[in-house]
Amino acid sequence: MIDLRKLHILTKRSDLAELPEGKLLINTVNANSYNIALEDEVFAESLKNCDVVLPDGVSIIFAFKVNRWMPRPCERVTGYDLFEYEMARLNERGGKCFFLGSSEDVLARIRQRAAILHPNIEIETYSPPFKPEFSDEDSRAMVDAVNRAKPDLLWIGMTAPKQEKWAYAHWNELDINCHCGTIGAVFDFYAGTFKRAPLWCQKYNIEWLYRLVHEPRRMWRRYVLGNLLYIKNVIICR
Questions:
Q1: Which one of 2, 34, 219, 238 has the lowest number of neighbouring Cβ atoms within 10 Å?
Q2: For residue range 217-230, what is the model confidence (pLDDT) as tens digits?
């Protein structure tokens, strides 16, 4: 079971500047991930036990407003907001960033774009095997790749809830002293392999509608049935 009130939820975008230095695990939560966490106890534990959770969805803000929970997030903070902030900050001082996840093609595009947009950041990457579950050997290789790199910033992109569960299970094995964000689709947005919703959709918190229109077959269950289920779980049953 998961209770939004007990997550370490960031309240506003400007709070990103207040995140402490050092080893920090940052996840996101939206209507879909909340629904999944109600059925997946390991995923729920990964959200409850990370250091920071971003309210990556207007549905999360809505739930707090309707239920008058405190403290309440006052604005949506997305995984891409975190990505842009952290990458800009690291680019200013210089350092190394590690991308763990996605395909070799996407990672190659990320390295190419980073060389232009963030020239002061050294990029290292690792593409894990594409399979439903990683073997112990797979995970060992992933941990070793990160630890060898000793990054100043770590991004994990394997889609939810796989990425959050993996980071939670192997957090103590990762010999890092930096922020780590599980940011899924941001890999594709940054690489340019998937176009993010236009700014006006982001402004009015309807990125979900943009994705539904462009990928109806893949997204209708998540955004139509999923949003109705979320309302039942969070608004009606609380």
A1: 238
A2: 776 676 677 778 88
Q: How many CA atoms lie within 13 A of 238 on its CB side?
A: 18
What does the pLDDT read at residue 229?
84
Where are the strands (E) in 19-162, listed by range?
24-29, 52-55, 95-101, 121-126, 153-157
- Helix, strand or coil, per DSSP, at residue 154: strand
Residue 76: both structure tokens together: 């949506």
For tokens 């790199």, what's the residue? 149
Residue 105: both structure tokens together = 């093609």
**Number of structural domains the chain divides into:** 1
Q: pLDDT, tens digit, for every residue of 156-207?
A: 999 899 999 999 999 999 999 999 999 988 999 999 997 777 777 777 677 7
CB 127: neighbour CB atoms within 10 A?
17
Would you mind telling me the total number of residues written for the chain in this entry?
A: 238
Dihedral angle computed from the Cα positions of residues 125, 79, 43 and 99, in that order, rounded to the nearest 10 degrees: 0
The domain containing residue 54 runs over which residues?
4-236
